[in-house]
Amino acid sequence: MDRITQNDTLIDTLGNCTIDSPLTIPKFISDSQRIAVDIEADIIEQSLEKGKIPSFENAGPRKKIFFKPQNTRAAIVTCGGLCPGINNVIQGIVRMLTFQYGVKTIFGVKYGFEGLVPRFGHSFIELTPQFVHDLHEKGGTVLGSSRGRQDEKEIVDTLVAHDINILFVIGGDGSLRGAYDIYREVKKRNLPIAIVGIPKTIDNDIWFVDKTFGFSTAVSTAAQAIYAAHAEAIGAKNGIGIVRVMGRDAGYIAAYVTLASNEVNYCFIPEVHFDLEGAHGFLPHLEKRLYAASHAVIVVAEGAGQEYFDEPKLTDVSGNIKYGDIGLLLNNTIGAYCKQRNIPVTIKYIDTSYLVRSTPASSDDAVYCIMLSQNAVHGAMAGKTGFVVGSWHSYYTYIPLSLVTKKRKRIDPHGYLWSIVKQSTCQPDFF
Q1: Where are the alpha helices (DSSP H) in 17-80?
Q2: DSSP for 211-251?
Q3: 94: which of 81, 132, 285, 373 is 20 to 30 A away, CA to CA?
């Protein structure tokens, strides 16, 4: 893990908290309660020798808050691609603000950051407990979304024009970078507006966040495709099932669904290079497997094997490189390889991307969404700003936007997770 200092973990605040919290609970969280960044004993000992252990602020309700609830106006925006659990988070924020803190005005921003720029013509909608009462049953986002950043100056102008005190940004890496830009613009103008991020990405690639919401649902949904691919593969002589899952730069879905299904023979992720041909290549190994077992199931993350695409690298509106379809490439390459060697094969290719993104949250994710949304509200009402709420070592913490946007979390090719994936599939290193 990259070493960070205590200064890297400090959360910005809008001012002194002088208002009694309206919550009637037996225990409040103190700002001094913190969670160590590293939990390995030797690392803690090294930190103690230097004077202080880097730690994150413990999330939760504060006894004193910054905003007067009856005067507070909040807004929620959802950005980027769809993900299971977005509606659950919206519902959780609205219910917490309304029922526990007594906030009367909550806006829903339509179509991502575009909705905070007047020239796009997207209106706000008022979010009430009645409006959100059944959102947990629905996939997608009731607010709509869009990709791409917008000018933070225009966005802050909109927040000021609507007297918004708190902006909740539900989004992934790119959206959180946008939130960080908004936070810096707010800070530059010395405005009492809290900017709060809630990490949304099924890729699970947010730094210093154990798990992003939607990831568990993505794995359980993708597992159904693995079972289908396995049934198709064993249903024919030399049957091959290829399942493509999401994961542009991090292969967490591919890795976890491989372990969860226990039916996968090959797993390919963006973090690990693989050769197709040659003495240690994938295709010769697959040929041997077909002779031995007469079937194979392959899971591949969308960002794996991109070095095999020669076309110019185009980008989308978010600045992300448009990746080639590695699943289709494997489908065609395997077919051509086997045809050349007179090996009869039956290949079934399943792309799970949009099925996984738009499904309602699983029970595990639904609980996680509630915890994230409630802790996001607690931090915001206490005047904390420029932070993301997440889970770290099974505690809920506040992490500065400046820290989580520095890099993306990825699977270590030499780490424990990838080693147990290889043990599960019995695949060698294909290079």
Answers
A1: 41-50
A2: --BTHHHHHHHHHHHHHHHHHHHHTSTTEEEEEEE--SS--
A3: 81
Task: List phi, psi (to 5°) of 69.
Answer: -55, -40
State both tokens at 106. 């909550």
User: How many Å apart are CA 168 and CA 178, to the nearest integer?
Assistant: 12
Task: In whole angstroms, give the CA distance from residue 271 to residue 206.
Answer: 15
The average pLDDT across 343-360 equals 91
Q: Which two tokens stand for residue 157?
A: 């102008």
Taking 80 as the threshold, does the pLDDT of residue 75 lie above it? yes
User: Residue holding tokens 């976890």?
Assistant: 256
Beta bridge partners of 57: 34, 398
In angstroms, the CA 148 to CA 315 distance is 11
Count of all residues that appear for the chain in the document: 431
For the cut 90, the answer to whether the pLDDT of residue 3 exceeds it is no
Average pLDDT over the chain reads: 92
Residue where the block lists tokens 């989580």: 404
pLDDT given at position 224: 93
- What are the residues facing 396 on neighbouring strands? 391
Report pLDDT digits (tens) over 382-393. 999 999 999 999
Query: What are 387's strand-pairing partners?
Result: 196, 400
Active site residues: 203
Question: Where do we find the tokens 């575009």?
Answer: 114
Contact criterion met (CB below 8 Å) for 389 and 398: yes
Which structure tokens are listed for 243?
């399942």
The contacts of residue 357 (CB under 8 Å, 6+ apart) are 81, 82, 83, 84, 202, 218, 246
Contact assessment for residue 400 and residue 9, using Cβ atoms and an 8 Å cutoff: yes
pLDDT at residue 301 is higher than 90:
yes
Using only C-alpha atoms, the chain has a radius of gyration, in whole angstroms, of 24
- For 102-126, the pLDDT digits (tens) are 999 999 999 999 999 999 989 899 9
Q: What is the pTM of this model?
A: 0.91
More confident site: 43 or 55: 55
Map out the domains of the chain with their CATH numbers.
Answer: 6-213+360-404 (3.40.50.450), 216-358+413-425 (3.40.50.460)
